[in-house]
Amino acid sequence: MKLLTAIIRPHKLEDVREALQGVGVLGLTVTEVRGYGRQLGHTELYRGAEYKIEFQPKIKLEVGVTDDQEAAVCEAIQSTAATGKVGDGKIFVSDLQQVIRIRTAESGEAAL
Fold first, then answer.
1. By the 8 A CB rule, do 68 and 51 touch?
2. Contact at 8 Å (CB) between 58 and 77?
3. pLDDT for 55
4. So where are the chain's domains?
5. Is 90 exceeded by the pLDDT of residue 43?
6. pLDDT at 39 over 80
C-alpha cells in the first residue's frame, strides 16, 4: 500500500478530484496549505503599495492506494494538475505500513 501526498494549485482541485474518481479512488483528504518551492513567491500591488507574497496558497491531497493503483493515480494527478508553469506542485509517494478502518476494524487493503 502507498500513501500519495500531492501539492497542487487550488484551482486544479476539482479537475484532479474528477480524474481520481475516474481511476477508482474512493476517498481523499484535502487540506489548504501555504508554502514555496522554486516559485519563491511574487509581488502584488494593493492600494498603491507593493508587497511581497512569499508563501503561495496550495492544496495538499492525501490518498491511500493499493500498490496496483499507484501508477494510475500518480499519472491522473500529474496529467490533470500540470499547467507547464513553475509552481504546479509535487507528488510524494510513501509506503503505508497499516490501515485500519475504525468503524469495522478492517485492516490492510480492505480498509482502503
1. no
2. no
3. 86
4. 2-111
5. no
6. no
Q: How many residues does the chain have?
A: 112
Burial of 94 (0-12, 13-18, 19+ CB in 10 A): exposed
Q: How far is CA 8 from CA 27, 29, 51, 105, in A?
A: 17, 13, 24, 32
Please state the pTM of the whole predicted model: 0.86
Q: Spell out where 14-88 has E strands.
A: 29-35, 42-46, 49-53, 56-65
CA 3/CA 67 separation, integer angstroms = 10
For residue range 6-22, list pLDDT tens digits in order: 999 999 999 999 999 99
Model pLDDT, residue 38 = 76
Bridge partners of 2? 65, 95
Asked if 15 contacts 80 with a C-beta cutoff of 8 angstroms, the reply is yes
Architecture of domain 2-111: 2-Layer Sandwich (3.30)
